[in-house]
Design a protein that fits this description.
Elements (H helix, E strand, L loop, with lengths): L1 H13 L10 H5 L9 H27 L5 H18 L1 H14 L12 H14 L6 H11 L5 H31 L1 H5 L1 H20 L2 H12 L14 H11 L26 E2 L14 E7 L4 H4 L2 H11 L4 E7 L9 H10 L6 E3 L4 H5 L7 E5 L5 E6 L4 H12 L1 H4 L6 H5 L14 E2 L19 E4 L10 E9 L4 E3 L4 E18 L5 E7 L2 E2 L13 E4 L3 E20 L3 E9 L1
Parallel strand pairs: 2-3, 3-4
Antiparallel strand pairs: 1-4, 2-5, 5-6, 7-16, 8-9, 9-10, 9-11, 10-16, 11-15, 11-16, 12-13, 12-14, 12-15
Helix pairs in contact: 1-8, 3-6, 3-7, 3-8, 4-5, 4-6, 4-10, 7-8, 7-12
């Protein structure tokens, strides 16, 4: 943990060199003018408090209140605009500082003239709009926060990052104030300079409302494509990545693919919802006395989809013998949280057993699950007796079901033909490229040529050849937690893969169809074209779902290149053989 804290602190310090700080820099510089001598200390204290608290607690606040996740950011932007007006119209500044003082219960003994309270409020707003500047270490902490897995280590790491960021911020503010005091012309025109910064703050706030700050970053990166590249390298070394894996946790710790002793009581399912194909179910009520298979899945996951024939057959075969399957849909991507999307997927896949939506990852966390698909078998007394992660081992899983049901219950039923004839269909595909995530939250396959800059438009350049299982970007892209989004036409996504079939979860961010051109080994795809392609080598992305990209006669290693239009989003590659 100490290593991660140190690297988080260093990452915070070097954030000042990142392109994402450019739209926010005028707000930081505004701390150099106006206010009392304690204003810089107020700004730093407000930033550290705000950034640390909201990084760790924002998802919890959203869950508890039901408020939109961007509401607090909008409040912060509004506050920035109001503070800008207070600098343009000095007569309003005293009123605002007195108001903030009363709201914070800091006075009557606090002085409004020393500027601390006004600075603290400005720092609080900075903490709420700073999130796009975080790197891989803070990204891992944010992922923990989204899944309600915040621990003491996450608190210290976040605090270290905010403290590291505050040091150059404080230095900028103090240097600006020192320059103002030493230069007679600047000192004589301090009031005009303050009004100028006020106008800039108002303009920055309005640009954030209109999302022009993102376009500004894109313009800067088009002019200076190497600006900021390499700043995240300090966080991307293997030692730090190993520490992050330990921070995330390694799962339930239960042994996989063998029958377990009745030692671990299964957590309840009541925290999820809504339910599909069934009213809400509880292990200690409606499901008491049954053998239960809990299937963690998400509808765009090709690995999950390949397990459905086995799940359907087990359910149809044993459902009258005190056996039930409960599908727990824990969404991998935001669009998978919509009830109507999951309902359509349940119908399309022919799933007739109960399915519960686990949008808040409550059930996922209760089982300490870490992957899709995962199967947990619960015996009639409510104990977890078998765990299997991923595909395969279908014959072993079915034998565990039969054992827990008891010989008397299944004596007249042979094991299902599907599982016996195809016990592990992935044995022949051990060299197959693994599932490849594109968002920074779980990205692990980008070539070192691409230094990923989280949550900000960046111009990427890729040099070939790629190694097997490596992915790379060319052109203007924004790499977000779950996806990559093309910020210009002719952006290219490349992958060196080993498989027979390639699938990609995609979406269009503005609701308009987006064309995708497919190249295989440097040529427009012919052999390997899929039914998605109405035009040879080209298909349209029209909705959020899994798209069939390559379908070859046999498995092999190939270079795949996708040239996409602006507004195309890609989430994760999956494969088949």
């Amino acid at each position: 943990m100490l290593i991660l804290i140190l690297f988080a602190f260093i990452a915070g310090v070097i954030t000042v060199l990142s392109p994402c700080i450019l739209p926010i820099l005028p707000i930081v510089l505004s701390g150099s003018v106006g206010g009392g001598k304690r204003r810089p200390f107020g700004i730093v204290a407000g930033f550290i408090t705000s950034f640390t608290f909201f990084t760790l607690a924002l998802s919890t606040i959203v869950k508890a209140t039901g408020l939109p996740s961007d509401l607090l950011r909008n409040v912060a932007i509004t506050t920035i605009i109001l503070l800008g007006f207070s600098m343009v119209l000095p007569q309003t500044q005293l009123f605002l500082e007195r108001l903030f003082t009363r709201l914070s219960n800091y006075a009557p003994r606090a002085s409004t003239s020393d500027g601390f309270v006004g600075g603290f409020v400005l720092g609080m707003t900075l903490g709420l709009v700073w999130a796009p500047c975080v790197g891989p270490i803070l990204a891992a902490v944010i992922t923990l926060a989204v899944t309600s897995s915040v621990n003491l280590a996450a608190v210290f790491i976040t605090f270290a990052y905010s403290l590291g960021t505050a040091i150059p911020m404080f230095a900028i503010i103090i240097s600006g104030r020192g320059l103002l005091q030493k230069n007679r012309w600047l000192l004589q025109n301090a009031a005009a300079i303050q009004r100028g910064f006020g106008v800039i703050m108002i303009a920055v706030g309005l640009s954030m409302v209109l999302q022009l700050d993102r376009r500004f970053q894109t313009l800067i990166l088009e002019k200076f494509p190497q600006y900021g590249v390499g700043l995240t390298a300090i966080e991307n070394n293997q030692f730090v990545q190993n520490q992050l894996n330990a921070l995330r946790g390694e799962g339930s710790g239960l042994r996989s693919a063998e029958l377990l002793a009745a030692e671990v009581k299964a957590p309840e399912l009541a925290s999820g919802g809504p339910w599909i194909n069934s009213p809400p179910l509880r292990l200690t009520d409606e499901l008491k006395g049954k053998v239960i298979l809990i299937d963690f899945w998400t509808y765009s996951c090709i690995n999950c989809i390949r397990t459905f024939p086995y799940l359907r057959q087990w359910y149809d075969t044993y459902k009258d013998r005190d056996f039930v399957i409960v599908g727990v849909h824990s969404p991998e991507f935001e669009f998978e949280k919509k009830l109507e999307n999951v309902q359509r997927a349940v119908t399309d896949f022919g799933l007739t057993y109960p399915v519960v939506l686990d949008n808040e990852f409550s059930i996922w966390d209760a089982y300490r699950n870490r992957a899709w698909p995962s199967h947990y078998l619960i015996d009639k007394n409510g104990y977890i007796r078998y765990v299997h992660v991923g595909e395969g081992n279908y014959d072993t899983t079915e034998q565990a079901i039969r054992t827990l049901l008891g010989e008397e219950a299944v004596k007249d039923l042979p094991a299902t033909e599907l599982a016996r004839t195809n016990p592990n269909p992935r044995v022949a595909a051990l060299r197959q490229t693994p599932e490849t995530y594109l968002g920074w939250g779980r990205a692990a396959s980008y070539t070192t040529e691409n230094q990923i800059l989280p949550d900000q438009p960046a111009k990427y350049e890729l040099e070939f050849p790629l190694d097997t299982n490596q992915v790379g970007l060319s052109g203007l892209w924004t790499v977000e937690r779950e996806r990559v989004t093309a910020d210009a036409n002719d952006a290219k996504l490349s992958l060196q893969f080993t498989a027979k079939y390639v699938y990609l979860v995609m979406d269009t961010i503005d609701g308009q169809p987006k064309k995708v051109q497919v190249f295989l080994d440097g040529q427009p795809i012919t052999v390997g074209a899929t039914a998605e392609m109405q035009t040879p080598g080209v298909f349209d992305v029209t909705e959020a779902r899994k798209y069939d990209v390559v379908s070859l006669p046999e498995s092999g290693t190939h270079l795949l290149e996708l040239v996409v239009e602006e507004g195309t989003a890609a989430f994760a590659f999956t494969f088949g053989s």
